[in-house]
Amino acid sequence: MRIISGPTRFGLVMLLILWVPILTNAQQSKTETDWSAMKFLIGDWTGDGGGKPGQGSGESSFKLDLQGKVLVRRSQSDYPATADKPAISHSDLMIIHPKASGKGFEAIYFDNEGFVIHYDVIKSDDKKVLTLISEPSPSAPRFRLVYTQISETTMTVRFDIAPPGKPEAFAKYVEGTLHRKAS
Fold first, then answer.
1. How many helices and strands in the chain, by DSSP H and E?
2. Rounded CA separation 50/27 (Å)
3. Which domains does the chain show, CATH number per domain?
4. How far apart, in Å, do the first and last CA atoms of the chain sit?
5. SS3 40
6. Which residues contact 154 (CB under 8 A, 6 or more apart)?
7. Measuring CA to CA, which residue among 64, 59, 65 is closest to residue 45?
8. ∠ CA 50-183-68 to the nearest 5 degrees?
């Protein structure tokens, strides 16, 4: 077995450091990501609505990041205490990105309750509805998140859950109306 000396090892490390960005860049698509079907989401929003957690309010933002390669949603919802339930504060992060195949989009969602959800993103032909839906599983719930543009300053959002083993039996968990914040 041959041991590589210090200067030679340094040269190999430098070669790797120089070539990795070049090779990585060569594998990436040179085309711009088409966010036109999701353009209505971009901005800062306030919202109100409710469902099983109760009546609540919150804020969301959708911003392009990484030089337009991903769309990042940050969301915060607060539900006041009721006679039956303590106050709830929910925050989450979702990143929408092009699929590795370059055809379509997918998303990954994280929240302060420990949930991680992988979504397929479905765009309507009229670019006014965006549906995010998780894969069906016989042993886990299935999730659907639907954004519908009502006007330039208003959209609705609905979060549905289907029970394990019944992937199409969605029931509304929470829904609300979002209003674009003034710039």
1. 1, 10
2. 44
3. 36-180 (2.40.128.20)
4. 66
5. helix
6. 177, 178, 179, 180
7. 59
8. 85
- CA 63 vs CA 70, 123, 133, 143: distances in Å: 8, 18, 21, 23
Q: What's the pTM value of the predicted model, to 2 decimals?
A: 0.79
Digitized pLDDT (tens) for each residue of the chain, 183 residues in all: 555 555 555 555 554 565 555 545 544 555 688 899 999 999 999 998 766 666 788 899 999 999 999 999 999 988 888 888 888 899 999 999 999 988 999 999 999 999 999 999 999 999 999 999 999 988 999 999 999 999 999 999 999 999 999 999 999 998 999 999 987
Query: Phi and psi (nearest 5°) for 172?
Result: -65, 130
How big is the CA angle at 71 (ends 154 and 109), to the nearest 5 degrees? 95
Measure the CA–CA gap between 17 and 7, rounded to whole angstroms.
Answer: 15
- Give Cα 167 to chain centroid, integer Å: 21
The distance from CA 77 to its chain's CA centroid, rounded to whole angstroms, is 16
Cβ atoms within 10 Å of 83's Cβ, excluding its own:
4
What gap in Å lies between CA 174 and CA 2, rounded to an integer?
Answer: 64
Beta strands in the chain (DSSP E): 43-51, 54-65, 70-79, 88-98, 105-111, 116-123, 129-134, 142-149, 154-162, 171-180
